[in-house]
């Protein structure tokens, strides 16, 4: 099972290699995660960076959490 963020408007999906709770956390607290990213020198985990990038690219779109049972 793998989980990702999907944009219902564009059909794009980002598989981030994290559990559902992590992805929901990122999506619901995107603004907080961005704040942390600006003030940390060590940087965020890769999946967080990729997740933020995806959310930024689909600003104002309907981004949902998706799962793939075949993976
Ligand atoms: Zn989109």
In short:
The protein is α+β, with helices and mostly antiparallel strands and 71 residues long. The protein has helices at 20-28, 30-39, 46-57, and strands spanning 2-7, 13-15, 63-68. The chain contains three helices and three strands; from the N terminus they run ββαααβ.
Structure description:
This protein has 71 residues and is an alpha+beta fold. It has one domain. Helices cover 44% and strands 21% of the residues. Strands 2-1-3 form a 3-stranded antiparallel β-sheet, with helices on one face. The longest helix is centred in the C-terminal third of the chain and has 12 residues. It is globular. The chain starts with a strand and ends with a strand. The model has no long low-confidence stretch (mean pLDDT 94). The site of zinc ion has 6 residues, from loops.
N to C succession of SSEs: EEHHHE
Q: Strand arrangement, largest sheet? A: 2-1-3
Number of strands: 3
Straight-line distance between termini:
5 Å
Fraction of residues in helix: 40-55%
Shape: globular
Strand content: 15-25%
């Amino acid at each position: 099972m793998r989980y990702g963020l999907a944009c219902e408007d564009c059909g794009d999906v980002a598989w981030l290699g994290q559990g559902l709770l992590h992805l929901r956390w990122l999506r619901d607290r995107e603004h907080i995660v961005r704040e942390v990213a600006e003030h940390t020198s060590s940087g965020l985990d890769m999946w967080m960076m990729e997740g933020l990038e995806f959310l930024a690219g689909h600003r104002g779109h309907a981004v949902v959490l998706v799962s793939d049972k075949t993976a």
